[in-house]
Amino acid sequence: MCSSLEAELWGIFEGLLCAWSIRITSLILEPDCKEALQMIDRARHSTRRSSIVEHILRLLNQDWVVRLEFVPREGNVVADYMAKRACGDDLIYHRFVSPSDGIRSLLHSDGG
Questions:
Q1: What domain range is 24 assigned to?
Q2: Across 58-68, average pLDDT
Q3: Shared-domain flag, residues 62 and 102
Q4: What is the model's pTM?
Q5: Mean pLDDT over residues 84-92, rounded?
Q6: DSSP state of 47
Q7: What distances in angstroms separate CA 53 from CA 48, 61, 68, 75, 112, one per listed residue?
Q8: Rounded to the nearest 5°, which phi and psi values hold at 58?
Q9: 3-state secondary structure (DSSP) of residue 74
Q10: Which tens digit of pLDDT belongs to each residue from 12-47?
Q11: Same domain, 32 and 50
Q12: pLDDT band at residue 83 under the 50/70/90 scheme
């Protein structure tokens, strides 16, 4: 088990890793956890870092453009839906290749 902050940081790391692995060159990542973003920002100017934040910083320092922007949970309904759907599963990692019907519905209602 891990804390919700650790889960958010792992989600940021996995998202960055996935984007980097498919050679995305410009990315806007919109987490809904201010505390995670603040922790990453503070770590840029510190030598004391958690392991996962260190991995995030290494990815951010690659040859690409990444912007991390806070989005309130209410504005991030698809990510919230995916997180709730994953809760309780015994799987450690979920990778969605295509959107489920539930996600398609949320995207359609959001105008996306």
A1: 1-71
A2: 96
A3: no
A4: 0.72
A5: 62
A6: S
A7: 10, 12, 14, 25, 31
A8: -60, -40
A9: helix
A10: 998 899 899 999 999 999 888 899 999 999 998 888
A11: yes
A12: low
Distance CA 55, CA 73 (A): 25
| 108 & 93 share domain | yes
30 and 65 assigned to the same domain = yes
User: Are 52 and 67 in a shared domain?
Assistant: yes
Q: In sequence order, which residues have a C-beta less than 8 Å from that of residue 10 and are 6 or more positions away?
A: 2, 52
In DSSP terms, which residues pair with 67 in a beta bridge? 28
Q: Is the pLDDT of residue 82 over 80?
A: no
Residue 109: pLDDT band by 50, 70, 90 thresholds?
Answer: confident
Closest CA to 40 of 16, 2, 12, 64: 12
- Asked if residue 104 and residue 66 are part of one domain, the reply reads no
43 lies in the same domain as 61? yes
Query: Rounded to whole angstroms, how far apart are CA atoms 24 and 21?
Result: 8
Helix, strand, or coil (residue 28): strand
Residue 104 tokens, joined: 């398609």
Residues 85 and 61 in one domain: no
